[in-house]
């Protein structure tokens, strides 16, 4: 199976380890991974901040870049939700504004075959035990778009439970937003920070070494809060945990 | 809307004070988490919750699509049942109508049933200016009124107060409004409730005029419905001689059968009860002459921005709202910012989409409300009429930054982009350009990576909002695309 990795602009620029982990993990599972270099950004920040018309060309570009693949896999719940849920909505809006079906028709094929990583593993590849080894206590934060847009449910947790050596500790108030929210983090920095601090304190109360999530943007906010509060925990993307094996442990 | 909210600062400034107020944070956290858990239990009891939610959404959408027809049907039914219907285009008109109706009775005081519509139009202040005193009789509204305060929650307007604060307000302020609180009043809930009961009983027995809102209006029979917990509503709706109800035009349901859906979803969503303790229904002055029905009934149908909201394809779903407050109780932003920061009698997620539509996005506070959300989607999940609040928030953000066509006072107008977004717009445009040119993006990433040793740990300008409370992520030695090019590049024709 030949799939395209849609890494996202944030991961490409700030978290290449997550990208390498996805490549390693999928390759290990027998998937042929390609990284189309013309990819950039899904346009989520534009769309969610009110710049829908600036997001449209990015949606078209995304569709052009990824059209030819069997599946598109991304290690980001919010970017997957952008493509799958909001691209079709942008198409509908363009139609309602009398701009025809072109946008809707362009985004429809890629929207249908875009998967968040854990969803791709469990639903498409049909695996929950990916042969990973990660001997650490971990707590998992389900990010909002994964939880409430994509309805990932217990998929990430099932994957983590199957990891050898990993002790999964339940996070109190897990379903509450971490406070990142894209531009919300700077537009309403005080509320955003207060939410982040509460999330970090909850994570700290579990005694886990690692706070895991399937979205690096939320982890960027929480990780930045952790170091500022001098909390001795690390934020780690789920892809990096699942890619780690006894032979090649995560460093 | 209520004049008491005029001149509010933008949401972020108002929220900053609330976030720093430990007592307020504690009060809100305790109250919202308690009711959040109770609601989840009450809803999980119903196996057909999803179907009820969908039915509620469809009934409301159908009614809104044919609102013109149902309003006329309602007017005819109310009139046939001995009531009088008045139409108010805006707050000013509604306040004038109510003030004239009260003056015509010769009375100078009214008792009030808790009502969002009358809060929205600032009725109490308008009546005060005409020499008419309005007494709130809902316990929480009484606390707010005695405290010279503003409501901070739709269902629990005094949610920001704890028992100790309430005792102090009762002890110091009740006497100025009527029967004083006992000298030795403690903060036990039973004692506080008893003090309020005795204070209010005097008002109920004396009042000749009552003012209410309504949760629903049934078009087929002209019946109004108030659901409540305390029984103060029942007192106001039955004891006085004249009843004036101010109701938003979106509160219609076509038939009694439709009501069945909402009488299940509203109490479970709001107070987490299977059924609310008091459901009062009245049809004009039907039954007048028996002791329990007012002799005169006036219905003031309030528009105040609702028709304009209805004209907007995306935003109109806000009019499905049945004012249950489930979205406030589940909202992590509301929990930390408190209700007052929203600058409206409608706080929380629903307020963030209602106020900028009913009032427009012209003021600083209204233009900032669509951003008062992390778009986490918890509000949409709990909404019993499936209002996609994040969708409307994003839509209103677009209205703020891009402007565009809207309906104001029944006229189609084209809004200009709001001021103060020029820098952000430039950044968004530049980002779009870079993202449309992968080569430019790569060049930017490389430059950032190679200069990473020189990056500051804190950001200047607007970036300070991030780095004041959070460290910046360290930049990697190279972006992923460069690693891919080095390791897999041979496979790719570039």
Automatic annotation (TrEMBL), chain A:
| Domain Cysteine-rich: start-end pairs | 3-83, 138-222
Superkingdom classification of source: Bacteria
InterPro entries named in the record: Cys_rich_dom
Q: List, alphabetically, the PANTHER family matched.
A: LACTATE UTILIZATION PROTEIN A, UNCHARACTERIZED PROTEIN YKGE
Protein name (record) = (Fe-S)-binding protein
The protein's organism comes out as: Streptomyces glomeratus
Automatic annotation (TrEMBL), chain B:
SUPFAM superfamilies given in the database record: 4Fe-4S ferredoxins, NagB/RpiA/CoA transferase-like
Indicate the segments forming the 4Fe-4S ferredoxin-type domain, all copies: 318-387
Taxonomically, what lineage is the organism?
Bacteria, Bacillati, Actinomycetota, Actinomycetes, Kitasatosporales
LUD domain span? 73-295
Q: Keyword annotations for this protein? A: 4Fe-4S, Electron transport, Iron, Iron-sulfur, Metal-binding, Repeat, Transport
Q: Which Pfam families does this entry report, sorted A to Z?
A: Fer4_8, LUD_dom, LutB_C
Chain segments carrying region Disordered: 446-470
Q: Which organism is it from?
A: Streptomyces glomeratus
What InterPro entries would the database entry show?
4Fe4S_Fe-S-bd, 4Fe4S_Fe_S_CS, FTHF_cligase-like_sf, Helical_ferredxn, LUD_dom, LutB/LldF, LutB_C, NagB/RpiA_transferase-like
User: Where would I find the Lactate utilization protein B C-terminal domain in this sequence?
Assistant: 396-486
Annotated protein name in UniProt: LutB/LldF family L-lactate oxidation iron-sulfur protein
């Amino acid at each position: 199976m030949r799939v395209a990795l849609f890494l996202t602009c944030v991961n490409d620029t700030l978290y290449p380890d997550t990208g390498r982990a996805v490549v390693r993990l999928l390759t290990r599972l027998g998937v042929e991974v390609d990284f189309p270099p013309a990819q950039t950004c899904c346009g989520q920040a534009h769309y969610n901040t009110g710049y829908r018309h600036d997001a449209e060309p990015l949606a078209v570009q995304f569709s052009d870049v990824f059209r030819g693949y069997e599946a598109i896999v991304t290690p980001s719940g919010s970017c997957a939700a952008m493509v799958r849920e909001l691209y079709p909505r942008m198409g509908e809006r363009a139609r309602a504004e009398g701009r025809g079906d072109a946008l809707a028709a362009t985004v429809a094929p890629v929207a249908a075959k875009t998967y968040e990583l854990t969803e791709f593993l469990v639903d498409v590849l049909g695996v929950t035990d990916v042969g990973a080894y990660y001997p650490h206590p971990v707590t998992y934060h389900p990010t909002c778009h994964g939880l409430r847009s994509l309805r990932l449910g217990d998929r990430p947790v099932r994957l983590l439970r199957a990891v050898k050596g990993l002790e999964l500790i339940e996070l109190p108030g897990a379903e509450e937003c971490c406070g990142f929210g894209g531009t919300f983090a700077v537009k309403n920095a005080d509320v955003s920070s207060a939410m982040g601090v509460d999330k970090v304190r909850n994570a700290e109360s579990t005694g886990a070494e690692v706070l895991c999530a399937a979205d690096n943007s939320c982890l960027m906010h929480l990780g930045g809060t952790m170091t500022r509060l001098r909390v001795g925990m690390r934020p780690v993307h789920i892809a990096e945990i699942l890619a780690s094996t006894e032979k090649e442990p995560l460093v | 809307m209520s004049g008491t909210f005029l001149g509010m600062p933008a949401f972020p400034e108002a929220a900053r004070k609330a976030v720093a107020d430990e007592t307020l944070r504690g009060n809100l956290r305790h109250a919202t988490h308690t009711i959040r858990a109770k609601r989840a239990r009450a809803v999980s009891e119903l196996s057909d919750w999803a179907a009820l939610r969908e039915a509620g959404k469809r009934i409301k959408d159908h009614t809104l699509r044919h609102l013109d027809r149902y309003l006329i049907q309602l007017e005819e039914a109310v009139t046939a049942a001995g009531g009088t219907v008045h139409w108010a285009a805006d707050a000013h008109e509604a306040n004038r109508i109510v003030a004239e109706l009260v003056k015509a009775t010769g009375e100078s005081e009214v008792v009030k049933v808790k009502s969002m519509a009358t809060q929205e139009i600032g009725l109490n202040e308008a009546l005060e200016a005409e020499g008419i005193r309005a007494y709130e009789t809902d316990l929480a509204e009484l606390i707010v009124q005695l405290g010279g305060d503003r409501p901070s929650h739709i269902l629990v307007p005094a949610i920001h107060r704890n028992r100790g604060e309430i005792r102090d307000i009762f002890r110091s302020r009740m006497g100025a409004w009527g029967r004083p609180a006992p000298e030795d009043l403690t903060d036990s809930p039973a004692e506080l409730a008893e003090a309020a009961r005795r204070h209010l009983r005097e008002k109920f027995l004396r009042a000749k005029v009552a003012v209410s809102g309504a949760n629903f209006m049934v078009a087929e029979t002209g019946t109004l419905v108030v659901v409540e917990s305390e029984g103060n509503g029942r007192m106001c709706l039955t004891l006085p001689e004249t009843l004036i109800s101010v109701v938003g035009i979106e509160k219609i349901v076509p038939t009694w059968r439709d009501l069945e859906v909402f009488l299940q979803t509203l109490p479970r969503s709001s107070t987490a009860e299977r059924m609310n303790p008091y459901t009062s229904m009245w049809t004009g002055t039907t039954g007048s002459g028996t002791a329990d029905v007012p002799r005169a009934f006036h219905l003031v149908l309030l528009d105040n921005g609702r028709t304009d909201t209805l004209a907007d394809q995306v935003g109109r779903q806000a009019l499905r709202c049945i004012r249950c407050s489930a979205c406030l109780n589940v909202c992590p932003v509301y929990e930390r910012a408190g209700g007052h920061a929203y600058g409206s009698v409608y706080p929380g997620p629903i307020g963030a989409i209602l106020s900028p539509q009913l009032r427009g996005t012209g003021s600083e506070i209204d233009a900032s409300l669509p951003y008062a959300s992390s778009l986490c989607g918890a509000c949409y999940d709990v909404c019993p009429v499936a209002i996609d609040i994040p969708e409307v928030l994003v839509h209103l953000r677009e209205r703020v930054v891009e402007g565009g066509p809207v309906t104001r006072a029944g006229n189609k107008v084209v809004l200009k982009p709001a001021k103060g977004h020029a820098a952000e717009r430039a950044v968004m445009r530049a980002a779009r350009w870079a993202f449309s040119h992968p080569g430019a993006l790569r060049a930017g990433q490389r430059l950032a990576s190679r200069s990473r040793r020189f990056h500051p740990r804190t950001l200047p300008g607007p970036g300070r909002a991030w780095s004041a409370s959070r460290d910046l992520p360290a930049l990697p030695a190279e972006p992923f695309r460069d690693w891919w090019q080095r390791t897999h590049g041979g496979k790719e024709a570039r």
